[in-house]
Design brief:
The chain is of the alpha+beta class and 84 residues long. The chain has one domain. The chain is built from 2 helices and 4 strands, in the order βββαβα. It has a 4-stranded mixed sheet with strand order 3-2-1-4, with no helix packed on it.
């Protein structure tokens, strides 16, 4: 059974949680609250991210720094290839 990663989740002032994905090189957004329940990855459907297979859990990392908020707000919400 694959190990489920624990990723830091930062609180965005808009009410969402930001999680950085090192595999698709973008922020994933999740709704609060942070619980022990696993989350589905919001990676594009190319299958390169192991998070699409395992999911992950969130760990509260506090408020998002200003630069993180700016970077997350600049990225497209739906990356190419993602099935919605």
């Amino acid at each position: 059974m694959p190990v489920m990663p624990l990723l830091p989740a930062y609180r965005h002032p808009g009410g969402q949680l930001l999680v950085w994905c090192k595999y698709c090189d973008r922020f994933h957004r999740h709704r609060p609250p942070i619980t022990a329940a696993p989350r589905l990855a919001h990676c594009p459907t190319n299958g390169d991210s192991p998070y699409t297979r395992t999911g992950y859990r969130l760990q509260d990392a506090g408020d998002a720094p200003a630069e993180m908020i700016k970077a997350a707000d600049r990225q497209e919400l739906r990356p190419e290839g993602r099935q919605w």
